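Please fill in the sequence for the structure shown.

STRUCTURE ENCODING:
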């Protein structure tokens, strides 16, 4: 996951930390929700479409995976994929990390990558931009009003 994050992240970490919040931010909670939902949607997509795609792509080669109940091997391959996805889902969301206090492994990974702090910095930047925009709009309105009065 560290390969996905930009390399300049360390420079951002040199800045002073924003005021810490004891509660998780809405963005962090939303991120956890999106990641969990995406894992479930991946499973649903594989379950609904994988059989057709496997047969289309691999054709007769799927016969290497035939069983007594599965004459073309496609079902066996789909079940294998679903099993692996379920394992990943369980590891990220259900299993508690051994080194943390009641956090899932997904939460532990996000903590190790300092995602909470990055999201707090994003929130602070958004607040600054919104404040600057509001101040600009007020100054603009004041200038317009003074121009009309003149």
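FILLED IN BY: designer on duty
SEQUENCE:
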């Amino acid at each position: 996951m560290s390969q996905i994050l930009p390399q300049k992240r360390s420079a951002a970490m040199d800045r002073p930390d924003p005021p810490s919040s004891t509660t998780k931010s809405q963005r962090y909670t939303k991120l956890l929700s999106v990641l969990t939902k995406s894992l479930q949607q991946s499973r649903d997509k594989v379950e609904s479409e994988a059989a057709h795609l496997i047969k289309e792509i691999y054709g007769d080669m799927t016969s290497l995976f035939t069983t007594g109940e599965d004459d073309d091997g496609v079902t066996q391959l789909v079940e294998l994929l679903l099993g692996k996805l379920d394992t990943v889902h369980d590891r990220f969301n259900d299993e508690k990390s051994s080194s943390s206090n009641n956090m899932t492994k997904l939460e532990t990974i996000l903590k190790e990558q300092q995602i909470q702090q990055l999201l707090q910095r994003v929130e602070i930047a958004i607040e600054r931009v919104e404040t600057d925009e509001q101040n600009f709009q007020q100054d603009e309105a004041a200038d317009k009003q003074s121009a009309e009065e003149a």
